[in-house]
Design a protein that fits this description.
It is a single chain. The chain is elongated, with a radius of gyration of 24 Å. The strands form 3 sheets. The chain has an 8-stranded parallel β-sheet with strand order 1-2-3-4-5-6-7-8. The protein has a 5-stranded antiparallel β-sheet with strand order 9-12-17-14-15, with no helix packed on it. The chain has a 5-stranded antiparallel β-sheet with strand order 10-11-18-13-16, with no helix packed on it. It is built from 11 helices and 18 strands. The chain has 2 domains: about 1-295, Alpha-Beta Barrel (TIM Barrel), CATH 3.20.20; about 300-445, Galactose-binding domain-like (Jelly Rolls), CATH 2.60.120.260. The chain is α/β, with parallel strands linked by helices. The longest helix is centred in the middle third of the chain and has 18 residues, at about 220-240. β7 (about 205-210), α10 and β8 (about 245) form a beta-alpha-beta unit. GO terms for molecular function: hydrolase activity, hydrolyzing O-glycosyl compounds. It holds the Pfam family Cellulase. Belongs to the glycosyl hydrolase 5 (cellulase A) family.
């Protein structure tokens, strides 16, 4: 179990062949290339998912079991263990006998095989489905009878969270898995609170994070990297040793089987650490640091505005009232700064640039934020704000800095110090400039 609970696992499909297509269009050369890249990134385990309807049910096809064996061999060649997920895209829960036959047929070659370190019985089983739960209570002991030393796990979907895990654990009380697997796709700035809630739901059983990530279909690659950095840091604080990014590759058009609802969701094509051409996104660098040195530094946040736009996690808030531009016209240090010009306000407040820290928020912590600001014929309000949110995303309160004087000023340090209020699970740092008919620049931000 130690290896499982500390595994540096990556979820994997080829960029051109996701889900069942990986097996029907099996390409060992491409797979080997990808697994070598995963190992170089710092992974030591790869999760692979198999499908009864593709492999053949209830008797798996020799063709597909050979492909699975070849995949496991390729993983081993690249120094990777395997986490094997069964019964994906599966709902025939009344057919228990044939389910057992199929599972044991797939698993039998790996009874004493150290290359396969854990088995996930079913990807994202529904704890609200009584028939599915009855099926799981039969399958777990059946698999254990043949593979008594194999750690078994189950997951619920990424939106069920801790309540789903609570229900899953309750219904498997007589035949519990060896550990539970949490799929986390919630707001990363609140990830520590969500992880601890999930841990409490399954305690005293151990927990891993088997999937987490952010699609770049509508966010920057920089924010994807910061998202994963926050989750890795929160897991470290919570004492969780295994966090698996979803997923290794983006998916090309046509890569996801057309008969799947997943294929109709644009976000599903852009969760990868690598683009479809094989080049690494910023998130790959973040994961490499988390895996190889257990570091997720604040430099990920681009606090000096020097990173390429694609690699910056800064987000616009209320851009309809004025969007910040990253410019080279007046940096305090380095080459770039953030500029607001001609801003207004909305009923929701002042426009801003915002980000959240890598370090997770805990109530009672002391926080400090600072930035230098400079004005040219500035009007209105220019300040920093720390905005606090509870575990459900509800706004609690904010703390604001000293304000930049109006008019034309030199670089002026704005600072805000605060203690995270009771119930705080996340914080956002806002660089605000509203009702400003002139221009304001921000540079050299710090957040600790």
């Amino acid at each position: 179990m130690t290896a499982v609970l500390n595994a540096k696992t990556v979820n994997y499909y080829p960029a051109n062949a996701g889900w069942t297509n990986m097996w029907t269009a099996f390409d060992p050369v491409r797979i080997n290339t990808d697994l070598a890249k995963a190992a170089a990134l710092g992974a030591d385990t790869v999760r692979v998912i198999v499908f009864p309807q593709t492999f053949g049910y209830p008797t798996p096809s020799a063709t597909y079991t050979a492909r699975l064996a070849q995949f496991i061999g390729l993983a081993d060649t690249n120094g990777l263990d395997v986490k094997l997920t069964l019964f994906d895209w599966w709902s025939n829960y009344t057919d228990i006998d044939n389910s057992v036959i199929w599972a044991l047929s797939v698993l039998h070659p790996y009874v004493d095989d150290p290359r396969v370190i854990t088995v996930e019985l079913k990807n994202e089983i529904s704890p609200g489905d009584a028939t599915a739960m009855a099926w799981a209570r039969q399958l777990i002991p059946a698999i254990r009878a043949t593979l008594p030393a194999m750690p078994l796990t189950l997951t619920v979907d990424g939106t069920s969270g801790a309540p789903g895990l609570t229900s899953l654990k309750s219904q498997l009380a007589t035949t519990p898995p060896d550990y539970y697997d949490f799929h986390f796709y919630g707001p990363s700035e609140r990830s520590l609170a969500e992880i601890r809630r999930a841990q409490a739901a399954v305690a005293p059983a151990p927990l891993v994070i088997g999937e987490t990530g952010l699609s770049t279909v509508s966010t920057s690659e920089g924010e994807q990297g910061a998202y994963l950095a926050r989750v890795y840091r929160a897991a470290q604080v919570a004492g969780i040793g295994s966090v698996a990014p979803w997923t290794f590759n983006d998916f090309a058009a046509g890569a996801i089987p057309a008969n799947s609802s997943v294929s109709t969701q644009p976000a599903q094509y852009k969760y990868g650490l690598h683009r479809t051409d094989g080049t690494a996104k910023f998130a790959a660098t973040v994961v490499n640091g988390a895996w190889t040195s257990a570091t997720t530094p604040n430099s990920i946040l681009n606090l000096g505005f020097e990173a390429p736009t694609a690699n910056s996690p800064w987000r616009q808030y209320l851009p309809q009232a004025g969007a910040a531009a990253i410019t080279t016209d007046l940096p305090r240090t380095g080459l770039q700064s953030a500029r607001f010009t001609g801003t207004t306000r909305t009923g929701s407040g002042l426009p801003s640039l915002l980000t959240s820290p890598i370090t997770p928020v805990q109530a009672g912590q002391s926080w400090h934020a600072e930035a230098f600001a400079r004005g040219a014929a500035a009007t209105g309000i220019t300040e920093l704000a720390l905005s606090w949110f509870d575990i459900n995303g509800a706004w609690i309160s904010q703390h604001t800095s000293n304000r930049l004087p109006t008019g034309t000023t030199t670089w002026t340090l704005l600072t805000v110090d605060a203690v995270a209020p009771a119930g705080a699970a996340g914080v956002q740092l806002h660089l605000k400039s509203g009702d400003n008919t002139g221009t304001v620049w921000f540079d050299d931000v710090a957040l600790t």
